[in-house]
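One record is kept unedited as follows:
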Amino acid sequence: MSLELNLSGKTAIVTGGSAGIGLATAKALYSEGVNVVIAARNQEKLEQAVIDIQSLDNANAKVIGVSADLTTAEDVEKVISTTIAKFGKIDILINNAGSARAGSFLELSDQAFLDAWSLKLLGYIRFVRAVIPHLKKQGDGRIINIIGGAGRTPRPNFLPGGTTNAALLNFTRGISKELALDNIRINAISPGLTDTERAKTLAVQNADSLGITVDEYKAQAVKSIPLGKIVNPEEIAALALFLVSDLAASITGAEIQIDGGSTPGV
């Protein structure tokens, strides 16, 4: 049996697409013949990401970058309208943009929580709300929310991110039944410790809050993973491709963890 994804000709939006998991997913989609719109705040990184994706040399697909701050509804709409103007449709949304500060609870201000909620939680919600009318019109759509293991397994030194992720799990499962009426599937991928620049920044913040070196923190983190290895962004991209393909036509409202077996419980 050959696993044919049959994604060629579709159009996808990938937020946070200039680095890490977002860039890996954008590259994977492009390689399958999907037209890709990547959205990110940093214009320089965005332009470089477009060059990196185009270097894959897929004549059947196009990629463009849109500079956007997902804490504003206007910029979300700009990404949507630019995609429609360029490609005429939207088939796939990969929600990936978001960050949260790590640190001891008593050292975190209200703003640390508000920043995480505004960018990731409300950013994802804004994008889903904005894209739904276009997906409903064609009677088909696929949405992936890249969330994170802290939503299911809270960490005391990552509460802004953990509360954001828990809320997004609730949102993903809750909205899935309503979207299913229009053949729109929405699922969540929750990565564990992943080899990205963002993870390196978090490692520094976590080490500082625990009073240990970054190397000590990384060693402890890897030791806690049963498979004993950090997740590669391409692994997450591969799962995203499967979930947005018709091979996963009956999967919606689900969360799939890629964490080397580190999440306890069921």
User: Anything to note?
Assistant: The chain has a mean pLDDT of 91. The chain has one domain: 11-194+231-258.
